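Q: My labmate handed me this sequence with no annotations at all. I'd like to see what the chain might look like in three dimensions before we decide whether it's worth expressing. Could you predict it?
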Amino acid sequence: MIVSSVQDGLTRTVDERAGEAVWRCLGRRGMLYSECESFDYVRLAPGSVLDERGRDDIEEVWFVVHGTGEFVDDEKGPLPVREGELVFCSHAAGGQWRSAADSPLELLLLAMMPASVSRGLPLRTPAE
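A: Here is what I predict for the chain of 128 residues:
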């Protein structure tokens, strides 16, 4: 569910009151004039998990802003991550993000349409 927050003008898609995760959309497809689906900020509380299944229609680039944890790839198993690292998830890849037990994990996500989809779309450019 997407809920607009009047307080700060951002969008959150995970309930902050649960204390496990914060997900804020920094930009969406129509705002970016690109093949980008969205640009998001994600914060996982210590010891929490974010399931990435069900997002097989996009390609993702994850940047670890702060903290340590792991991305558990459905096929390759756990990949330890730390601040400053990038994780690329190809079209139809799946897995889970897990933050370390002792610290939160902060991530930036750039979600894009796969080339097989974007090739068939009309050219989109900003209006003057």
